[in-house]
Amino acid sequence: MESGDILTVVGGLVLVLVIALVANPQHLTGSSVQAVPTTTIIPHGMGPNTSGVATTQGTLSTELNPNQSGFVTPQTITTPTAVPTGAALYQIFYTNKPFTYPRFKLPENMVIFGASDILANRQDMVPFAFIEYNRSGGLTQIFSVPYPVWVLNTTVTANLTPQYGDFRMVLCYASNGSIINGEEILNRGSSYRIIQVSNTDVYMIISTAYIDRYRITLETARNYYDAYKPA
Description:
Elements: H1 3-23, E1 62-66, E2 72-76, E3 90-91, E4 125-133, E5 138-139, E6 150-157, E7 166-173, E8 179-186, E9 189-195, E10 202-209, E11 213-221, H2 222-228
Parallel strand pairs: 3-4
Antiparallel strand pairs: 1-2, 4-11, 5-10, 6-9, 6-11, 7-8, 7-10
């Protein structure tokens, strides 16, 4: 082989070696490059986790179980969860045995209950329970309230056909079905009913027509809440 051919072969080998080192620099040190694990943090309001707590796995998951008072208390499932913020409200549901109640029909004349009650100005009200449904009516579970004075704060939404909206509700004693108080909201809007019955089993009869949603929040003044709230 001539000297010129040898130089050509050597030069080709050197070129291949240089290209290999440029394409794979880790071979210069003998180390390898590994992927770095990352954690995705979902900010508050930007994804399924809206609790404001960043989590890498698991979601906030709760189930509602009725207790003896007729209210429903939130109970955390034993799965990875985020820490909830704020005090939980008791949720009141409809009963599946309405015909066992002493009264299961509304009175024909709802006008007797008059207009909404008026709350004192600057009164600090604390919500402690609620019932909320889309359109449907029914009879609620039996429940009891420990506060001597409390309020039914009702809001009715009827955006599709507000001219036909009709919401009616009466609060009854569970022992004999006697009516404690009631209200009727035509079209849509809000109403207050001040109740002075405590530590007594009661329930609500609710009728709806042509509304989208209603919510009744049970509230009491801060001084009653602090003095009579269950331990």
